[in-house]
Amino acid sequence: MLRGGVGLGVVTSITLRLRKVSSLNLEGGDKVVQYTALFPRDAFEFAARLYTSMLPVKDTRLTLGCLVMIAPPPMGPLAGKPVFMIDALFIGSKSEGDKALRPLLSDDSKAKALTVTAQPVLLAKMNEKGDGRFKRGVYLDTFSSFMENVSGETINLATSHWLEFGDKVGSSLSGKTVLNLASVSTEGPRKADPQGETGLSHRSRSFLARTFVIGLELDEVNRVGIFAEQIKEIMRRDDRAKGIVDGAFASNIKAGTDMKEVYVPGKLRALEELKRHYDPDGMFWNPAVNGWGP
Predict the structure, then answer these.
(1) How many CB atoms lie within 10 A of CB 110?
(2) Residue 157: CB partners within 8 Å, gap ≥ 6?
(3) Are the C-beta atoms of residues 84 and 38 closer than 8 Å to each other?
(4) More confident: 294 or 105
(5) Helix, strand, coil percentages, rounded to 5, for the chain
């Protein structure tokens, strides 16, 4: 790779580090474990507290997320109803995963949930899940933010706003939205870049909040877009209360995003200087330097 620094470069070759599957101590030698708990509308507050009780994620083998949505047709009898889903993926054995997710598997959780399952899934197929709505030819957009802190109260505010939106516009429209929060350990990124030298991503942020909008008609786009922006504002409240600047995940940004949300402070000027040096003729476009205009 020809490097200009701060995320600027031209890829000329790639070297991958491979790890033997046998070293991962997977369930049955070749399976990860997918944990799913579904909660009904009257248990949303409990589900938010349960989710945040398992944070921050410290085990690098664990990815922990939650989704709030109108259950899609593949969910059978739940289809068309609001559900709060806690979804976890553990890359290791089920016995280790059960320890890491003990609160999710507790009797209290099972009493509140519609269902709690732990399903081994072939490593090669762990990303094949789908709910049928994410398909070619439908309008799809995402409104996202990248945070250091998310509280149970904030999740409750976001889900309450989503429920109010659904009560106002009906499930046929709110069913085209999905609230998603994902959390992973920051240990790996911090070790890889302890000084924040790349400048591109916020290494201390482990929460990615997204509102997916799916299959909208043209007259619905603005209406749902306003709602999705409101959810983004809610999800950022904990960071803002602590004086942490708004953050955005680079691969999820929308056109027009303030690039100060993508690059850590102090790096934008360095990027401008590097671009002038490596691209004096302005052959390549970069929104952080050139802006979003034509």
Answers:
(1) 13
(2) 234, 237
(3) yes
(4) 105
(5) 40, 25, 40
**Where is mean pLDDT largest: 14-28, 189-203, 265-279?**
14-28
> Over the stretch 67-123, which tens digit does the pLDDT of each residue have?
999 998 778 888 889 999 999 999 999 999 999 999 999 999 999 999 999 999 999
Q: Who's near 40: CB < 8 A, 6+ residues apart?
A: 81, 82, 83, 84, 114
Domain ranges of the chain: 29-124, 132-283
- Count of CA atoms in the C-beta half-sphere (13 A) of 186: 18
Least confident of 16-20, 28-32, 109-113: 16-20
Q: Given the structure tokens 């390549």, which residue do they identify? A: 284
Tokens of 34: 């997918």
In DSSP notation, 108-158 reads HHHHH-SEEEEEEEEGGGTT----S-S-TTS-EEEEEEEES---HHHHHHH
Of 131 and 80, the one with more pLDDT: 80
Tokens of 28: 């049955």
Query: Pick from 104, 128, 148: which is nearest to 246 by CA?
Result: 148
Radius of gyration of the chain (CA): 21
- Report the Cα 20 to chain-centroid distance in Å: 27
Nearest to 145 by CA among 236, 206, 222: 236
Q: Which of 66, 49, 48, 126 is nearest to 90 (CA)?
A: 126
Q: Which CATH class is domain 29-124?
A: alpha beta
Q: Do residues 44 and 84 touch, judged by C-beta distance below 8 A? A: yes
What's the CA gap between 65 and 97, in Å, rounded?
A: 15
Q: Both tokens of residue 242?
A: 């602590």
Cis, peptide link before residue 56, omega less than 30° from 0: yes
